[in-house]
Amino acid sequence: MASTQRGKLSSVPGVDPIEQQLRAYYEAEAAAALRPAHGARREAICQAFATRLVDEGCRSVLDLGAGPASDHAPFVAAAIAYTGVDLAIGNAALAADLGQTVVPASLFHLPFASASFAAGWSMSTLQHVPDDRIDAALVEFVRVLEPGAPVTVGLWGGRDETVESTWSTSGLALRRHFTLRAHDRIRAILHRHLDVETDETFRVEPSDWEYFVATARVPA
Fold it and tell me: Residues 47, 53, 59, CA angle at the centre, nearest 5°?
C-alpha cells in the first residue's frame, strides 16, 4: 500500500524538485521517529488559537504542513475536527497511530473542496516555498477555507536569504530548501491573501533566525 501511495503522490501535478527534497527529509524523519518536540511558546500559540475557534464557533481546522499531527491536541480537546496535510506518507501513518487524519498531498493541490474548513493553521511550512510559488500556495490554502475563517500562520524569516540547509534539531543531515524573508515582506505577501490582524516576531535559540507569527482572517 505504501508504495502505491508514493506512486500516486509522485504523479500529483506540481510536486517539484523542492517538494521532492522536502518529502525525502520528512519521510526519513518519520521513519526514524525523530520529530522534535515543540516548545512552550508554540504550544501556547496553538492553545490560544484553539480557544479562539471555540469562542467563534468554528468546528473544523486544516493544518497545512502538519507533520505527524504534532499540533492536534488542543483542537481535539476542544472538539474541533482536525485534518492535516503533509508531503510525507510516513507522517500520515504516524498521525493515524494517534487516531488523527493527515492526508499526504502537495500544498499546491489540496484534495478538498472549496470552503471545506472553518479555520486554518500552518506552522513552519511556508518558509520552504520559494518566492515564485508562495502566492499559489496561499491561494490554494485560502480556497479550501470558509470566507471569514480565522487563520494563524507561523514561519521562519527575519532576513532575505535562500538557504539549502542541512541543519536540523532532529539531527538529520539532509538538505532542505528555505526561502527566508524579511518580516515586512512576509506581511506584504500575507496581506495579498488574508486580512492580517496581528503579528509578532521572536527568536528561537539556538538558531539565529527569527520566527514570525500572524493571526489573520480569510476575506469575507
Answer: 120
Look up the domain containing 53 and give its range: 2-217
DSSP code for 123: E
| 2 pLDDT tier (thresholds 50, 70, 90) | very low
Structural domain total, the chain: 1
The domain that holds 26 is classified in CATH as 3.40.50.150
What pTM was estimated for this model as a whole? 0.92
- Band (pLDDT 50/70/90 cuts) for residue 212 is very high
Contact 84, 95 (CB under 8 A): yes
* DSSP H/E element including 56: helix 40-56
SS (H, E, C) 3-49: HHHHHHHHCCCCCCHHHHHHHHHHHHHHHCCCCCCCCHHHHHHHHHH
Query: Which contacts (CB < 8 Å, 24+ apart) does range 23-26 have?
Result: 23/87, 23/88, 24/174, 25/168, 25/172, 25/174, 25/175, 25/176, 26/67, 26/86, 26/87, 26/88, 26/90, 26/91
Helices 2-10 + 89-97 axis angle, to 10: 130
Radius of gyration of the chain from its Cα atoms, rounded to whole angstroms: 16
**Which three cell numbers, joined as nine digits, stand for 161?**
536569504
